[in-house]
Design goal:
The structure holds two protein chains of two kinds.
Chain A (H helix, E strand, L loop, with lengths): L3 E4 L2 E4 L5 E7 L5 E8 L3 E8 L6 E2 L6 E4 L5 E6 L8 E8 L9 E2 L3 E5 L1
Parallel strand pairs in A: 2-11
Antiparallel strand pairs in A: 1-3, 3-8, 4-5, 4-9, 5-6, 7-8, 9-10, 9-11
Chain B lengths: L3 E3 L2 E5 L4 E6 L6 E7 L6 E7 L4 E3 L3 E6 L4 E6 L8 E8 L6 E3 L3 E6 L1
Parallel strand pairs in B: 2-11
Antiparallel strand pairs in B: 1-3, 3-8, 4-5, 4-9, 5-6, 7-8, 9-10, 9-11
The chains are: A mainly beta, B mainly beta.
Chain lengths: 114, 110
């Protein structure tokens, strides 16, 4: 079991460029999440999915889009990157759902927008 | 709204105890605790539910006061491996999504 993997691990973008972050899990989990982590801010939920084909907004969804076409994959897109999107992005998944949702996190993607 | 954790940081000697608090302005359905070591991903520690049910770590305990909308994490006889940043996350019940606090950094020294 690889668990939760994220691609890429590091990326540098210029303002206005676009990119997609890929999250993959091999645990057959229904729920998947995208967070961003900034110093002193903790983890903030961007978007989440409660199953294949579903997505919903979290706390800070502006500037991001997501898709869950396959159960094992959750994609996070930045259409026009801004320096404020410089952050570490974590993907997570869980099997059981609320309230016993033990989330398994990927290793993170460090994104810098110049 | 983001739950508030206190203290923001704590430094301990090995063997000492620590308490980390998590307070919410909203009614809590569940509280989830995670630990993150520097440069790594957060790792699950515990879940506490309304009604007193707990699930998680065997060396770390926690409490959940529904009336006060607070949870506390108790780290006893701390070990060097306890160092890291601790996050509480509050659950809303239906969706699985968690709102995390800003974190408490714990450093255990020999």
């Amino acid at each position: 079991n690889a668990g939760v993997t994220q691609t890429p691990k590091f990326r540098v973008l210029k303002t206005g460029q676009s990119m997609t972050l890929l999250c993959a899990q091999d645990m057959n989990h229904e729920y998947m999440y995208w967070y961003r982590q900034d110093p002193g801010m903790g983890l903030r939920l961007i978007h989440y999915s409660v199953g294949e084909g579903t997505t919903a907004k979290g706390e800070v969804p502006d500037g991001y889009n997501v898709s869950r076409l396959k159960k094992q994959n959750f994609l996070l897109g930045l259409e026009s990157a801004a320096p404020s999107q410089t952050s570490v992005y974590f993907c997570a998944s869980d099997r059981k759902g609320p309230p016993y949702n033990e989330q398994f996190f990927g290793p993170g993607t460090r994104l810098t927008v110049l | 709204q983001q739950p508030v954790q206190s203290p923001q940081a704590v430094i301990l000697r090995e063997g000492e105890d620590a308490v980390i608090n998590c307070s919410s302005s909203k009614a809590l359905y569940s509280v989830h605790w995670y630990r993150q070591k520097h440069g790594e991903a957060p790792v699950f520690l515990m879940i506490l539910l309304k009604g007193g049910e707990q699930k998680g770590h065997d060396k770390i305990s926690a409490s959940f006061n529904e009336k006060k909308q607070q949870s506390s994490l108790y780290l006893t006889a701390s070990q060097l491996s306890y160092s890291g940043t601790y996050f509480c996350g509050t659950g809303s019940g239906n969706t699985g999504k968690l709102i995390f606090g800003q974190g408490t950094t714990l450093q255990v020294k020999p």
